[in-house]
Design goal:
- The chain has about 150 residues and is an all-alpha fold.
- The mean pLDDT is about 90.
- The chain is about 55% helix and about 0% strand.
- α1 packs antiparallel against α2 and α3 packs antiparallel against α4.
- The relative contact order is 0.15.
- It has one domain.
- The longest helix is centred in the first third of the chain and has 21 residues.
- The chain is built from five helices and no strands.
- The chain is globular and about 50 Å long.
Length: about 150
């Protein structure tokens, strides 16, 4: 694996996966990509998913922006878009573990683990948003990470 890559929404594989899933959905609806571009999008989706699984589920931060919750939302969207039960089970088990750590020890969030906050992208509000989004929201592809607020 590339040591320079990261599994973050703000500057890593999670953001790349989120954007490639948008391309996938736009192409499905409007047929805007040629065959070469479609294959490239699929390769980038696969790379991003693997990078998130390899690096993004053991981050010492639970936030949306650069933590596990953002990675789980992206993987959840992927698993449902591609009907991937294995990834869906991974999302569910990781979310249960995250909640267990949060309830028993602490909700790891903030900026570089130095500042604990309640904000959406780097704090507790985002962690709660992710739990609700994954467990209770049928609109799995409409979330704050891909700027779909409708």
């Amino acid at each position: 694996t590339d040591r320079l890559s990261s599994a973050n929404w703000c500057h890593g594989s999670t953001g790349a996966l989120t954007s490639r899933l948008l391309w996938f959905k736009l192409n499905k609806k409007f047929n805007i990509l040629n065959e070469h571009d479609i294959q490239r999008v699929y390769l980038e989706i696969d790379h991003s998913v693997n990078d998130i699984i390899d690096k993004g589920l053991s981050i010492n931060n639970f936030s949306l922006c650069h933590g596990i919750m953002g990675n789980l939302i992206a993987l959840n969207e992927y698993s449902l878009a591609f009907s991937n039960q294995k990834i869906q089970q991974l999302v569910q088990s990781t979310l249960i573990s995250l909640c267990s750590v949060g309830m028993k020890k602490d909700w790891l969030c903030g900026v570089n683990d130095l500042f604990y906050n309640n904000g959406l992208m780097t704090g507790l509000a985002g962690i709660l948003y992710g739990i609700i989004k994954i467990y209770y929201d049928d609109n799995y592809d409409q979330h704050v990470l891909n700027l779909s607020f409708y």
